[in-house]
Amino acid sequence: MRLDPKYFNTFLAVVAVVAALFIAYFTVSSQLDKRSEFKERIVQQDSLQTVTWPLVESSESISIADFSDRFVLLHFWSNWSERSVEAHRQLAKLKREYGGRLTVIAAAVGLRREEALSYASEHGFPFYHVAGSRLFSAFQIPGVPAYLLYAPEGRLEFVLTGSMDEVQFDSLRTIMDGKPK
Q1: Which of 44, 76, 94, 131 has its CA 20 to 30 A from that of 141?
Q2: C-beta atoms surrounding 117 within 10 Å
Q3: Is the distance from CB of 102 to CB of 80 less than 8 angstroms?
Q4: What pLDDT does residue 9 have?
Q5: Is 43 left (phi over 0), alpha (psi -120 to 50) or beta?
Q6: CB 91 within 8 A of CB 104
Q7: How far is 4 from 6, CA to CA, in rounded Å?
Q8: pLDDT of amino acid 11
Q9: Rounded distance between C-alpha atoms, residue 38 and residue 46, angstroms
Q10: Which residues cross the membrane (predicted)?
Q11: Which of the residues in the chain have pLDDT under 50?
């Protein structure tokens, strides 16, 4: 089979488009698989609650298990992700709404301690700001932002990677409202 030279450029363009579509499909598919695998793995092992998280504001550390009398929302974020920064505004609103029934731990990913401290001071969100890069890598979390909600008894109730919309915030409220106050 010979290709007529006058159709060669068209042929190359079609091949390039098909190749680009395959690459896009498998990239998206791979990301979805990673997120799904992460959710399954984190629910099964769930050792994040016993790990210590170094606070950005001091030399102390905390763990999710320290807050066994309330819900704990662990939020992996980074300041380069506009979705993460906007999420903090929503999480601060949620924290005000639930007061002492909810603790938010904001785990900074990819930030130096000084950057995270500056961000925490500038915005004054009612969260525990912790260094999260090491554990983000260790637990192979597939991206930021990522959210994990633990019930007062320590059971993982909610996992989301990617941005959270109002429907997901309503899901958090439903989970927290369904538990004894």
Answers
A1: 94
A2: 16
A3: no
A4: 81
A5: alpha
A6: yes
A7: 5
A8: 80
A9: 11
A10: 7-28
A11: 180-181
Is the sign of the CA dihedral 18, 21, 27, 33 positive or negative? negative
Which amino acid, one-letter code, is at 149?
L
Q: Which residues pair with 71 in a beta bridge?
A: 102
**Residue 44: predicted pLDDT:** 59
pLDDT, tens digit (0-9, with 9 covering 90-100), for 75-98:
999 887 677 778 898 999 999 999
112: nearest Cα among 86, 135, 131, 99: 131
Residue 142 tokens read as: 């597939």
CA atoms within 13 A on the CB side of 86: 8
Rounded to an integer, what distance in angstroms lies between the CA atom of residue 35 and that of residue 38? 5
Q: Which pLDDT tens digit goes with each residue over 60-81?
A: 999 999 998 999 999 999 887 6
Q: Which of 178, 142, 134 is nearest to 42 (CA)?
A: 142
DSSP notation for 82-145: HHHHHHHHHHHHHHHHHGGGEEEEEEE-S--HHHHHHHHHHH--SSEEEE-HHHHHHTT--SSS
Tell me what pLDDT residue 86 has.
81
